[in-house]
Design a protein that fits this description.
alpha+beta, OB fold (Dihydrolipoamide Acetyltransferase, E2P), six-stranded parallel beta sheet, six-stranded antiparallel beta sheet, 27 strands, globular, Anticodon_Met, cytoplasm
């Protein structure tokens, strides 16, 4: 079998000077969408993200919090990785620039460039922004401060941060040596920088005026990679951070297998504010190292607010955890991929966010699923009819729309045009809803002579939903599986590669009662809720909570905790023998002759449904209210008979006081998911 085509995609590595908001999350989710899409196209994907942990700002931040820089970045890196887990980011590696292998590789790279003559020792005097970790010329500043004699005494960077005059000895990189070669590369590879407008910015604003040699070390702080044989210098961000894309693959180490396999990168995705570093400095560094350049660098727009860029000082920041907790992960991921048009900024408003959930997800997609499942149950006893083409007058047009949707979706996804890909898919969602109105299955059901037409309609709707679910997978991590589950379709064939509208399995039975995958929201109430979370008050509370957490972390010693347990201590290997899965309650009833027992019928990811008996009847006088909830089941217990009924596992519950309650899990977690 031929090796799969490789695909290497990276996010920028994030500077952990504060909590990441939805604007930061956009880049990582966008890369995750592309990585998932390529895997579903049968590519061998390597997806990298990480943190840029050196620099003066980190040193100062840690000092303000009475922490060492390493303690601070450890805490922040852990928080960022936890966030990526919550957003279900499928990165293959998380690099930290404080990782020992990275620091050693950077020293080797620096020495190689020094020996080659591309780096030389000099001195630098210029205006420096600590917050931006960047030098600026006077003309680049947004605002310049002068004394009474007109002499420059300070200013503000384009970001709004203050600059200060810095003079120090520094090693410089000969950028000018490679300027012509870089322009030649741009011309030979017109899709190297995406979108094209970013390339024009680089040429007109930075290269044509004259590319100056770049200061790449600092002596005014210690928190960084030490220059070999000159340790008073630390390697500055340009080499330290940018080279993460190759050091993560093993470049500069004894094992370069991953580097040889995946480099050059297929896509570096970055925000537009750091395009210059990735399209000028980074390619030149690679040229100097005699390495191939990445194939594409995508500089996306920002997700901004109506009053401009998200800013903690403005109190208009939205954090992803707040949205996912209330609205689910799928809603956030969908919104972000629709909200930022390719190459331009997207504007976040609470109104737009809530409306997209209601109109796109609840009305368009949710209703299509609900109506389809309900009609298959009502008219065909829950069994999806065999899919046949060209039975009704509207079948061929729907099939044509499906084919167009696949083509348009794949074309745009391949180009990272996420909003356009989703727009193409939603055109098909709307077309499928229109198909219901055109065919009027409720009318066909009244006429036995129209049975074949009714079968065709129901099968086409199921086929449409199957296709929609498959194409939604890169963006939504839960809804596609839920659609498949409600349609009774197996989850083992959801690849996007060679997806076929007509590959609808035969004799499939839908669930007896569908459940809304996106409940409608009260727009006014939810808008007010989001706005309340964006206030400065909330921001200040968050800062206070973060400070308290830091202080608590500094004082926390887990070994001093008095651990309590009602049972004998066990080793992990014993716990690991227990299999726990998320189970959807399909039905529940009392067991005849047993007042304490409830009989549960569950979807726990088995080939069929399993039955579990639980002695919790007294705490659930109306057990039918449990139908549709997701619980945790121990699934590898040996089955046993109780009151003549088989029990194939155990449901987990919590005891508090005189009450026993089943432990439930969020709706978005698919049935059958492993726990632990």
């Amino acid at each position: 079998m031929a090796d799969k085509q490789t695909y290497y995609i990276t996010t920028p590595i994030y500077y952990p000077s504060g909590k990441l908001h939805i604007g930061n999350s956009y880049t990582t989710i966008a890369c995750d969408v592309l990585a998932r899409y390529k895997r579903l196209q049968d590519f061998d994907v390597f997806f990298l993200t990480g943190t840029d942990e050196h620099g003066l700002k980190i040193e100062q931040k840690a000092q303000d919090l009475n922490m060492t820089p390493k303690e601070y970045v450890d805490m922040m890196a852990e928080a960022i990785q936890k966030l990526w887990q919550e957003l279900e980011i499928t990165n293959d590696k998380f690099i930290r620039t404080t990782d020992e292998y990275h620091e050693k590789a950077i020293q080797k790279i620096f020495q190689k460039l020094l020996d080659k003559g591309d780096i030389y020792l000099g001195s630098y005097k210029g205006w420096y922004s600590v917050s931006d970790e960047e030098y600026f010329t006077e003309s680049q500043l947004a605002e310049v401060y002068r004394d009474e004699q007109g002499n420059m005494i300070g200013g503000k960077a384009p970001s709004g941060h203050e600059v200060q005059l810095v003079e120090e000895e520094s090693y410089f990189f000969k950028m000018s040596k490679y300027a012509d070669r870089l322009v030649e590369y741009y011309n030979e590879h017109p899709d190297f920088i995406i979108p094209q407008s970013r390339k024009n910015e680089m040429l007109n604003n930075f290269i044509k005026p004259g590319l100056e040699d770049l200061a790449i070390t600092r002596t005014s702080f210690d928190w960084g990679v030490k220059v070999p044989n000159d340790p008073k210098h630390v390697v500055y961000v340009w080499i330290d951070a940018l080279c993460n894309y190759i050091t993560a693959l093993g470049y500069g180490s004894k094992d370069q297998e991953l580097f040889n396999k995946y480099w050059p990168a297929d896509v570096h995705m970055v925000g537009k504010e750091i395009v210059r570093f990735h399209t000028i400095y980074w390619p030149i560094i690679l040229m100097a190292l005699d390495l191939p350049l990445p194939k594409h660098i995508i500089g996306h727009g920002w997700l901004v607010m109506r009053d401009g860029k998200m800013s903690k000082s403005k109190g208009n920041v939205v954090y992803p955890e707040m949205l996912t907790k209330r609205y689910g992960l799928d809603a956030l991921r969908y919104y972000l991929m629709r909200a930022v048009p390719f190459g331009n900024d997207g504007i976040f408003t609470p109104e737009d966010f809530v409306q997209k959930i209601n109109y796109d997800l609840a009305n368009d997609l949710g209703n299509l699923l609900n109506r389809t499942v309900a009609m298959i149950n009502k008219y065909r006893g829950g069994v999806i009819p065999t899919l046949t083409s060209n039975v009704t007058a509207f079948d061929l047009d729907l099939e044509k729309s499906a084919k167009e949707a696949i083509t348009e979706y794949e074309t745009n996804m391949d180009q990272a045009h996420f909003a356009l890909a989703l727009e193409a898919l939603w055109k098909f969602v709307s077309r499928s809803n229109k198909y219901i109105d055109e065919t009027e299955p409720w009318v066909l059901a009244k006429d036995e002579a129209k049975a074949e037409e009714l079968d065709s309609v129901l099968a086409h709707l199921a086929a449409s939903l199957r296709l929609i679910a498959i194409l939604l997978q890169p963006v939504m991590t839960h809804a596609p599986k839920e659609i498949f589950t409600q349609l009774g379709l197996p989850l083992d064939n959801m690849a996007i590669k060679d997806v076929d509208y007509f590959a609808l399995p035969e004799n499939t039975t839908v669930v007896k009662k569908g459940t809304p995958i996106f409940p409608r929201l009260d727009i006014e109430a939810e808008v007010e809720y989001i706005k309340s979370k964006m206030t400065k008050n909330e921001k200040q509370k968050g800062r206070k909570a973060m400070q308290e957490a830091i202080e608590a972390q500094a004082e926390f010693d887990p070994e001093k905790t008095e651990l309590k347990s009602t049972k004998k201590e066990i080793k992990f290997d014993k716990f690991d023998k227990v299999e726990q899965r998320v189970a959807l309650i399909k039905d529940v009833s009392r067991v005849k002759g047993a007042d304490k027992l409830l009989k549960f019928r569950l979807d726990a990811g088995d080939e069929g449904e399993r039955q579990i008996l639980s002695g919790i009847a007294q705490w659930y006088p109306e057990p039918e209210k449990l139908i549709g909830k997701k619980v945790i089941a121990v699934t590898n217990l040996q089955p046993r008979k109780m009151r003549g009924e088989i029990s194939q596992g155990m449901l987990l519950s919590a005891e508090f006081g005189d009450t026993v309650q089943l432990i439930t899990v969020p709706d978005e977690i698919p049935a059958g998911s492993l726990v632990g």
